[in-house]
Specification:
The structure is a single chain. By secondary structure, the chain is α/β, with parallel strands linked by helices. The protein has one domain: Rossmann fold, CATH 3.40.50. Helices cover 33% and strands 20% of the residues. The protein contains nine helices and nine strands. The strands form two sheets. Strands 5-4-3-6-7-9-8 form a seven-stranded mixed beta sheet, sandwiched between helices. Strand 3, helix 4 and strand 4 form a beta-alpha-beta unit. It is globular. The chain starts with a helix and ends with a strand.
Length: 221
């Protein structure tokens, strides 16, 4: 498994925030953090639910801007890192669980006011992606904003692959290295179907993946 192959303190390599295998710069990480904090309009009173939180290296930056929250991920290695290195306060926690299973069965839904899924939404099979958004709408009733980050844009797939060969249909495969590529129209359609209104957020032009990715902010319809 990729995370196990990385150094224990190479946190951004563990979650593949890399270019050609090298972790991206602190400036790049700061752009991600700022985009999420700004998109969610995080305030001290907020409690954040981070779905597909990985090892918590980004999550801790979101928690620092609010009243804490919960990170959920299905990878035991990454959640172990999160609990070992990134729990700063009693009101912060990380849980080992599939995110859709958590959303279906959680008994602690009250109190979350914002949610984020940065870099993970595209790896959910289409039925799971739809169900997750439906569950957030139905069961997490105080969550008013959801940030979906780092989504690969199907219209700009050639900007990523260039002249390289690619497997036919790879853009629709959640198990592929970059997950499912969606157009902005497809995101708008999925959001409307699940009870959300989507706003496409422009990325900082200096962000290393801005030429083929975008962010999305969901608000309750």
């Amino acid at each position: 498994m990729h995370a196990r192959a990385c150094a224990p303190d190479n946190f951004y390599a563990q979650v593949k925030h890399t270019v050609a295998g090298t972790p991206v710069s602190p400036e790049q990480i700061a752009m991600i953090v700022q985009s999420v904090r700004s998109g969610l309009s995080l305030e001290a009173a907020d409690r954040v639910l981070d779905l597909c939180c990985g090892n918590g290296a980004l999550t801790t930056e979101f928690f620092a801007a609010c009243g804490g929250g919960l990170g959920v991920d299905f990878c035991e290695t990454l959640i172990t890192v999160a609990n070992r290195h990134f729990v700063r306060r009693p009101q912060e926690a990380f849980r080992l669980q599939d995110v859709v299973d958590y959303a279906r069965n959680a008994d602690d839904t009250a109190g979350f006011t914002k949610a984020v899924c940065h870099g993970g939404f595209q790896y959910l099979p289409p039925a799971d992606a739809q169900e997750l958004l439906e569950l957030l709408r139905q069961r997490f009733v105080e969550v008013k904003r959801v940030f979906l980050g780092n989504l690969p844009d199907k219209r700009r797939i050639d900007a990523f692959f260039g002249d390289r060969d690619r497997v036919a249909g790879i853009e629709n495969d959640s198990a592929s290295p970059l997950g499912i590529w969606r157009t902005e129209d497809e995101i708008h359609s999925l959001s409307a179907k699940t009870g959300w209104t989507a706003t496409i957020l422009p990325m900082n032009a200096r962000y290393y993946a801005a030429h083929y990715r975008y962010d999305v902010l969901l608000k309750r319809r």
